[in-house]
Amino acid sequence: MREVLAQAAFQLFLERGFERTTVDDIVARAGVGRRSFFRYFPSKEDVVFPDHERCLAEMTEFLAAVGDEDPVGAVCDAARIVLRMYAADPEFSVQRYRLTREVPGLRTYELSVVRRYEQTLAGHLRGRFGTDRDGELRAEVIAASVVAAHNNGLRLWLRSGGAGDPEEAVDHALDLVRGVWEQPAGPSPAREKPALPATAGASGVTAGSGENEVIVMVAAKGTPMWRVVQQIEAAVGEG
Amino acid sequence: MREVLAQAAFQLFLERGFERTTVDDIVARAGVGRRSFFRYFPSKEDVVFPDHERCLAEMTEFLAAVGDEDPVGAVCDAARIVLRMYAADPEFSVQRYRLTREVPGLRTYELSVVRRYEQTLAGHLRGRFGTDRDGELRAEVIAASVVAAHNNGLRLWLRSGGAGDPEEAVDHALDLVRGVWEQPAGPSPAREKPALPATAGASGVTAGSGENEVIVMVAAKGTPMWRVVQQIEAAVGEG
Fold this sequence. Notes:
By secondary structure, the first copy, chain A, is mainly α.
């Protein structure tokens, strides 16, 4: 029933525009009563985004169950829950993307949903960083970065018409954020093997072993900070 | 006239709520005609945020005139234009903050304004990074980080009731983002003097001089990436 209503609404939005479609039009097309509509959707906007509530709930549940050791990695993984929702129905997601770009009311609605995802991620990080210096600040900046990176990868896929696997672009985008903000855990076997990246601008090596292991980083002064970070990450085997 | 209308609207929103106040109520309180209202404000929401359009225009103008050498610094400075707008009228800003938190319609409107600031900053960075690898991605992530950092500092000040100078908190927040993302320019006199931070986790020194200057960074492996970045920044004299 939910899907039938969403399908009907979507057809109508595409045929006559979002603003000129009423809930009565939608229920007529779907062949059900008004009450059925409002049982499933609080408003006309919610028809366009039928899965965000479920997705937010899933994200909250995931973060409540996740361990403490890698909070930045955890919020990146939590963001991937949203990606999977989009990827589950490429045609619907692409249609919605086009519709949303054309209808200001839907764009604003989408912004408020995105904000709720961001606040969920920030809330998790605040809980993990809470007592650290700048904990709240870092929580909010990292959450915003993760959302921006996720949306960049997702948008690439949507713009391409939903062809192929969106995960690659999103993983790449999230890795950039993770590389900058991640708090490394203790040494792991993967990190024992030093990597020597061949980039001209910066190079990093690991020396020693175990708990006392250090990173020695040498970079030309003009090297951009994000590249320095990439190189350090590569050297410690997290690239 | 604009201020008179904004004042009247605000009093009414506080007295009877935003939703139950009409434009007619506002013009009656201000003692002017409906047409005057719409000459200044496209909608009731715009009364609550009377300066954002001007502020967006100022931001765009500022970024169009700014040099190429420090794009991340430039968008941080652009964000400070918004801060100054809030700081110019602490009482109004604090009242509005409280009102906005209580009225969903205003929150959504504010989100769309914030999104426009973010897109303005991202557009500037895209123009600067355009041909770089991951240029668009970095532009969007940095813009989102700058906005989140700015809003974190601003919110601290608003929550405190608008007491004191908000610039300190915002500067501190923006410095965190800048430290992570800034692309250093060529050597400057300020950077010739190496700083040796006393933090246990990480230390950085600069060696050599002029164009061939390098950063040597030594850090214990468990050091969080953001602290490494802070230390490198401190070492190159930008902390």
